[in-house]
Write a sequence for this structure.
């Protein structure tokens, strides 16, 4: 038994999941501890601090490459946290696709992390890390593939700056999963309140500082998915170009459910202007991405 | 799907990741802290009690010292009183010694019967023991009878005789010459 083990027991740290245990919620791993949340894009990095009281503060953003920003902001970020732990959203070097007929064996999620080829077969590529979500009501799955090098490099750069990555994920993919969950809940509620009545088509759109993921759902079927990184900056028209065909393909009276990384995005308004009568619902809450990154 | 699953983790999993200890084991650090707090509390209590005992001990020692001082003071006073008493006794003895010898002379002279004679009467006393009066009487005629008469007269005056000595040629001579020596002491009861 090491001295650290005794210290962990006396500080009750040993009764919480380890800081880098991805199976545990962020708030359980870091109880009453200040941690950093980072959203890392190709040309922009934004951040905020989740303080001991569970509130977000000291949010900021800076244009530039992570490596350059780290040399400038690294010590400040380290000082913002108690022990240097951070939750990272990668906003580039990933692809989200819609797949069919993927294996659904038990324990597949763990296997996907260690041996993706056994799950994805020929679709698995060397040097990629994967995450997927199956549609429980059809044979389709949303698959995220991210460059392993980007993950490792980001973790290494943060480590050099005294920061430790407790979680590295793709923010826009997480937002899309959240949207899928919300729409599923709405479908279940509708099925209970109005049995037999069709739910209709839904287009889910998630945007995160230049990255876009849009998924079209007709009844319980996922029909189409589009995903881009570094697509837009301030002007949202490239996003419209991506999602309008999806909306048109989904048919009339399609519900458009939109989620952005932060509240106040002009896209829903643009959609209403471009598609008068469109049913646009924005489900973004303040600090949307940060809340997802820290499970709070 | 919970939020943890939504926010998938792409970083490589550390192989030696340990699960958290069961919550019931929290009793161990809780007991540790309780025992530490208890030990500190008892330590504080013992310290307070020790200090209190030391204060009491000091107070008792101070009291004992005070009593010792009082005893010493009383002994000093006693010594002064004893000295004063001794001096008073000396004065009393001196006063006793200053009593006139005339009454002894008178008692001896008056005790001489008709026809008897005394050749000398000597009375003396020392400074060391002024209460004792050494008497020497030479009786020319009268013998031991006169000597008894003289002793009777002295007893009447309140004197006790001791260390009596009679010098004579014939002890049964009641009319010849004898020399009688004795030490006289004034009987205290007769003075009162």
């Amino acid at each position: 038994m090491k001295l650290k083990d005794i210290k962990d027991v006396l500080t009750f740290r040993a009764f919480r999941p380890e800081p880098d245990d991805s199976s545990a919620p962020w708030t359980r791993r870091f109880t009453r501890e200040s941690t950093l949340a980072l959203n890392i894009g190709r040309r922009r990095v934004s951040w905020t601090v989740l303080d001991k009281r569970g509130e977000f503060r000291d949010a900021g953003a800076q244009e530039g490459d992570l490596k350059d920003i780290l040399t400038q902001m690294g010590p400040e970020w380290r000082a913002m946290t108690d022990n240097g732990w951070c939750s990272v959203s990668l906003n580039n070097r990933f692809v989200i696709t819609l797949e069919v007929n993927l294996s659904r064996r038990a324990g597949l999620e763990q296997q996907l992390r260690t041996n993706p080829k056994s799950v994805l077969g020929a679709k698995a590529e060397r040097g990629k890390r994967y995450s997927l979500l199956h549609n429980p009501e059809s044979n389709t799955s949303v698959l995220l593939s991210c460059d392993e090098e980007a993950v490792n490099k980001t973790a290494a750069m943060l480590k050099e700056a005294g920061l430790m990555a407790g979680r590295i994920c793709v923010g826009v993919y997480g937002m899309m999963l959240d949207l899928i969950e919300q729409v599923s809940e709405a479908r279940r509620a509708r099925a209970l309140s109005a049995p037999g009545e069709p739910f209709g088509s839904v287009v889910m759109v998630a945007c995160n500082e230049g990255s876009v993921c849009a998924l079209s759902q007709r009844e319980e079927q996922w029909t189409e998915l589009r995903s881009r990184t570094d697509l837009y900056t301030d002007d949202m028209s490239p996003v419209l170009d991506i999602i309008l065909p999806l909306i048109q393909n989904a048919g009339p009276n399609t519900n458009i459910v939109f989620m952005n990384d932060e509240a106040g995005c002009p896209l829903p308004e643009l959609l209403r202007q471009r598609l008068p009568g469109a049913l646009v619902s924005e489900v973004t809450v303040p600090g949307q991405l940060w809340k997802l990154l820290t499970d709070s | 799907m919970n939020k943890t699953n939504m926010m998938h983790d792409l970083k490589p999993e550390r192989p030696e990741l340990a699960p958290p200890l069961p919550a019931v084991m929290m009793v161990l650090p809780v007991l540790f802290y309780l025992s530490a707090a208890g030990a500190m509390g008892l330590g504080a209590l013992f310290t307070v009690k020790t200090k209190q005992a030391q204060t009491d001990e000091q107070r008792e020692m101070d009291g004992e010292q005070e009593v010792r001082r009082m005893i010493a003071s009383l002994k000093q006073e006693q010594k002064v009183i004893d000295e004063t008493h001794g001096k008073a006794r000396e004065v009393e003895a001196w006063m006793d010694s200053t009593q006139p010898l005339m009454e002894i002379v008178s008692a001896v002279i008056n005790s001489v019967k008709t026809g008897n004679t005394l050749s000398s009467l000597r009375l003396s006393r020392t400074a060391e023991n002024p209460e004792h009066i050494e008497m020497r009487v030479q009786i020319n005629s009268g013998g031991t009878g006169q000597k008894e008469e003289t002793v009777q007269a002295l007893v009447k005056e309140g004197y006790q005789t001791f260390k009596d000595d009679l010098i004579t040629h014939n002890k049964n001579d009641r009319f010849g010459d004898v020399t009688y020596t004795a030490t006289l002491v004034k009987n205290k009861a007769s003075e009162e």
Summary: The mean pLDDT of chain A is 92. Chain A has ten helices and 13 strands. Residues 164 and 265 of chain A are 31 Å apart (CA to CA).
